[in-house]
Amino acid sequence: MDSLRINTYRPQYNHRYNPSFQGGLKSLNELNPISRYADRYFRRVALESRRNIHNIIPELQTKLDIIPIKSTRKITISAWDIKPNNSDQYVLFLHGMSQNVSNYQSLYKQINQQNIGIFAVEYRGYGANHPANFSEDKLRHDVEVAYKYLTDKKGIKPENITVIGHSMGGALATNFASNHPDIKSLILICPIVNAAKIGEKFALNKTIGEGIPASVKSFTNRIKPLNWLYSLRLSSLLKMKSNKVPTYIIQSKNDVVTPIGSARTLAKVAKRQGILQDIQILESGGHIVDRNKVNIVSKFLDKIYSK
């Protein structure tokens, strides 16, 4: 399909819609109160991703093509393709759950200055894409079709591709890497390690989610099978156990979304797998991809592509 080069990035459709997010084993997860609260949160942040769209910065305007990609017969997603100069090294970038591809342009600018290309996937229902319902499986499918475009249409070899994921994108990236051991490396920025852990934070902090009553949380914790089913959703921890790709992790101690303890547990699993290359723990920076995290990603990529 033809690419589109534009200086603004706006939704294709502006009418109101109510997307839904569902994990696997839908009927059983609907019995889990924390799961239902989390689904409501995911719906809200997907809508937020469509409101928080940034114009393309001048440094990227002449280098960026917006690529439409057919994900299914009815669903077309998009990707930002920021091409390097005479290089076949690429980053496949997966954004967070309340973000869209336009929110990470300082990172793209830095990576492009290192003469590495960026292929940033915009999931269905997110950013400027057509409104659509989505599930974890559907988002994983969107990542797969974007990767297929990158390898088949653009001819980029898997061994030249680093996958970078932030937050929810970190969980999607870990799942992807577990199925593609031939890619070059994996960089996780404040990844969701286990969705159940976020559910626990919803129960304790109204500013993060819906503020699940303590009685509901207590009830859910007593139903161990449901808690276990919910923990399968967006779990980079489970997928790391079968991952064979060299892995780098960045995490802030003061991240109020993904806890530092979970990131350390993820790193321990990666170390047992023999794939942990580096973990950088920051004192500040929270959950966002700030300048410090951009600089660390840059150093990781220098190390990865100098080998």
Explained architecture:
With 307 residues, the protein is α/β, with parallel strands linked by helices. It has one domain: Alpha/Beta hydrolase fold, catalytic domain (Rossmann fold, 3-Layer(aba) Sandwich), CATH 3.40.50. The chain has 12 helices and 10 strands. It has helices at residues 26-29, 33-51, 58-61, 105-113, 136-153, 168-179, 195-204, 214-222, 224-231, 236-240, 260-273, 291-305, and strands at 21-22, 64-70, 76-82, 90-94, 117-122, 134-135, 161-166, 185-189, 247-252, 276-282. It has an 8-stranded mixed β-sheet, sandwiched between helices. A two-stranded parallel ribbon has the order 1-6. α2 packs across α7 and α4 (105-113) packs parallel to α12. The two termini are 34 Å apart. Mean pLDDT is 82; it is low at 13-18, 22-28, 202-211 and 223-232.
How would you summarize what this structure contains?
With 307 residues, the protein is of the alpha/beta class. 41% of the residues lie in helices and 17% in strands. The chain has one domain (52-194, 234-305): Alpha/Beta hydrolase fold, catalytic domain (Rossmann fold).
Q: Roughly what is the average pLDDT, rounded to an integer? A: 82
- Per CATH, the architecture is 3-Layer(aba) Sandwich
As for the CATH topology, it is Rossmann fold
Bulk shape: globular
Q: How large is the share of residues in beta strands?
A: 15-25%
SSE order, as H and E? EHHHEEEHEEHEHEHHHHEHEH
SSE topology:
Blueprint: E1 21-22, H1 26-29, H2 33-51, H3 58-61, E2 64-70, E3 76-82, E4 90-94, H4 105-113, E5 117-122, E6 134-135, H5 136-153, E7 161-166, H6 168-179, E8 185-189, H7 195-204, H8 214-222, H9 224-231, H10 236-240, E9 247-252, H11 260-273, E10 276-282, H12 291-305
Parallel strand pairs: 1-6, 4-5, 4-7, 7-8, 8-9, 9-10
Antiparallel strand pairs: 2-3, 3-5
